[in-house]
Every structure is written in C-alpha cells, then in structure tokens.
Amino acid sequence: MAFTLEQSPAPIDAVYGPTIFTINYPEMTSAFFVLEVWDGTPALGGSTLLATLHQSVNASNAAIFDIQTVLQSYVTVSKDDADRLGGYRAVGGTQPFGSNQPKILSDAINESTEYYIRAGVTNSTSISPETWNLSSGPFQAFNGVKQWWRRRFDKNDEGLQQDLFTAEVRGTEEAPANCSYVTDLARPLSDNRDRLYIQDCGYAYPAAITDNVVIARHYVTSNDYATKSWINSVRFGNPAPDAFVKGIDAFYVVMYNGTNELQNPIIPNVIANGGGPNTTYKQGTGLEYPYFFTTIGTGPKNLERVEYTPSTGSPSDQLFEINDKNGHTIGFIL
C-alpha cells in the first residue's frame, strides 16, 4: 500500500489547538517518519525550512504529528493600530493618530502564516530521507483558538460536516442578469456570541435589510473603537457564482438612527482601503497570503469619519461622515 497522508488540518485553521498530520505507510521498514514544515513550496528557492520533526513508527506503521507549537512561533498579536482602523485621515490637516493613521480595513500579516509540509522516512534522525514521499500545501494558520477535541477549525463542535466560518455563494441564470447569492452565512472570527436574526433584535431596522439576516449585536458608546474579522474566502455552491467571486468583495455599512437610514456606503475590500488582494472592486484576484483574513473597524469612532476608495474606482479618496447631527443613537449593520 502507498505512503498516505491520512489526516490533515483544515486549509484555514487556528494555531492554538491540535494541528494534526497523520501519516500511514503499511510497508514501513525504516525507523522514523520525518515531517518538515516550510513557509513556501518545500526546497524551492526562496522558501525557508521552519522545522524538522521525527516520529518513531507505531504498531500500525503510522505516525501522528501535532505541529501547533511550530506554527505558534510564526504568528503574533495584531498590528499596534488594529483597534483604531478608519477614523479620519485628513488630507493636509491634523490626523487623530498622526501620519500613520490606519485605513478602514486590514489584512492579517501579523496574525497569520502560510506553510507547507513534506514527509518521508529515515533510519536516523541525523539523516534526511533519500526521497520525499509526499508534500502538501499551502495551509493558512491564524492566531486563534479551537477546543482541544476539534481537529478542524472549520467544522462545528459536534463534528458535523458544516463549515462555520466561510460563506457559501451560488449563482443563478435567472433574468435580467446573472447574480450571485450567499446561501450560507459565515460566522465572524469574534468572541461576540450575541448573534440573532435581525427581526429579533428588539429595535427598528432599515427596510432594505430583509428578515432572516443574522446579525451580531454589540453594545458600544459613541466614543468606542471596535473591530470585526472574517475569513476572506468563500465556498462555491451550484450553480457556481460569477467568475469574479473569490472572497469578500466589499463591506456594506448601513447607518440607521431608528427612524431613517442615514448613509449606506459600500467599502470595497481592496488594497487601497487596507484590504485585498483586489486592487479594484470585483476584480476577481485569487486569494493569497496575507489576504485570507480581513478586519474592518466597526466601532462608532472607527466609522465616524472615513476616507476610502469607493466602488467606482475613483483615484481620489472619498470621505463619508456617519455622525448623526441630531444626536440619535446610531446602529451599524455590516
């Protein structure tokens, strides 16, 4: 029988929790399995070897490697300015946080890492395999936590085959034009557990937001900064969506004061706004590190005054203000 990779983590996984690779080789005659962890395609120019692990063969001619401690060394905390994404980046004027005022979106270059593995066998921990039996990747790992019994971050706690953190998107051939629809919502990477259908929130909400939309309710003051992060990838339903759909293309911000919808800007997830990998709205660029995760400033102070590049692709930033001049309580729906 062949040398096989029997078990591997989710393609996008949390580093604090089991990160298991199980290798099986029924015809094993060597003393050790070897697993290498690389930051790029193994042994390719420009790639760096992160770790080499050895495991004695067990009674089933298999080995189980948990590489979570390796990956934990290559992720860190969020950027220093992550809590104050957005705000007002005044042109030629005073900025709240100086010349390095962050944009409204952010990638996850600090909080995530990309890695590959390759595996083989050897009779000595000081000797590399003569040939490598398999390689696999890329995998994305981020600075998050999963329960000790969960082998895959993207499945729920009961082990059901249900993706929790990526949305399913499908297309339609119905007239007047092809469209894309989200048929399974994605849960944000957040500790905020107060999730409910919008019609159950207990407050008035804009008629443009239909019932059965799941929201996360977060109580804040007008001076609070806050953020929310998502995995920036999607699952394709049937029929497949438009070709440009590769991840989160934009954030739709609805500001509402209980009576009127005050503003509803669309903030494209593009590099100019701090996100990516798209450089223009609906560009359809394939996801790559470090753009598998996107964070947006969601607090009242983050969204108070924001300069951003709009969906029209205007070369100059556009400013929108979401202060309610009448002093109403304002809700934001993303």
Can you describe this structure?
Helix content is about 0%, strand content about 35%. It is elongated. The chain folds into two domains: about 110 residues, Immunoglobulin-like; about 200 residues, no CATH class. The strands form eight sheets. The chain has a five-stranded mixed sheet. A three-stranded antiparallel sheet has the order 1-3-6, with no helix packed on it. By secondary structure, the protein is mostly beta strands.
What is the topological layout?
Blueprint: E1 4-7, E2 12-16, E3 20-24, E4 32-38, E5 49-56, E6 62-66, H1 68-72, E7 105-106, E8 112-122, E9 132-145, E10 167-172, E11 179-184, E12 195-197, E13 214-216, E14 227-231, E15 234-236, E16 250-252, E17 254-256, E18 261-263, E19 266-268, E20 293-297, E21 305-308, E22 318-321, E23 331-333
Number of strands: 23
Average the pLDDT over all residues and give the rounded result.
Answer: 81
Helix content: under 10%
Helix and strand succession?
Answer: EEEEEEHEEEEEEEEEEEEEEEEE
What does the overall shape look like? Answer: elongated
